[in-house]
């Protein structure tokens, strides 16, 4: 999932539109912008409440693509955000909780 969000090769509408799987790259939730990883994680107003919980967990300075996708301490809150939005559950199921005690293994 992290590689897909980093690379842009994912199941969000902008990429699906590029590979002719959907007719439009526009976010079906808010209908305002292209559904890119940036839009999904940081902009879409439909996920505002869930994003507020994510921001509280990772702190303001890590609320960026780099902070969310590259910082080890952001993984648990990021996967919880993904689970809470339900955006990928039909593809990947529910992501298990990240075990903070064993994350270096």
Content of β-strand = under 5%
Which structural class do you get from the secondary structure elements? mainly alpha
Number of strands: 0
Q: What is the helix fraction of residues, given as a range?
A: 40-55%
Brief overview, please?
By secondary structure, the chain is mainly α. About 50% of the residues lie in helices and about 0% in strands. This is Reverse transcriptase zinc-binding domain-containing protein.
List the topology elements:
Blueprint: H1 2-7, H2 13-18, H3 37-43, H4 48-58, H5 65-70, H6 75-85, H7 89-92
Overview of the molecule:
The chain is mostly helical. It contains seven helices and no strands.
Characteristic terms for this protein:
105 residues, mainly alpha, Reverse transcriptase zinc-binding domain-containing protein
């Amino acid at each position: 999932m992290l590689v897909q969000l980093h690379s842009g090769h994912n199941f969000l509408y902008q990429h699906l539109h590029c590979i002719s799987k959907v007719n439009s790259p526009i976010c079906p939730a808010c209908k305002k912008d292209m559904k890119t990883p940036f839009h999904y994680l940081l902009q879409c107003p439909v996920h505002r409440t869930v994003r507020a919980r994510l921001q509280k967990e990772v702190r303001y300075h890590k609320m960026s693509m780099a902070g969310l996708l590259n910082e080890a301490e952001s993984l648990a809150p990021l996967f919880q955000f993904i689970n809470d939005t339900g955006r990928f559950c039909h593809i990947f199921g529910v992501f298990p909780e990240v075990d903070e005690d064993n994350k270096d293994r």
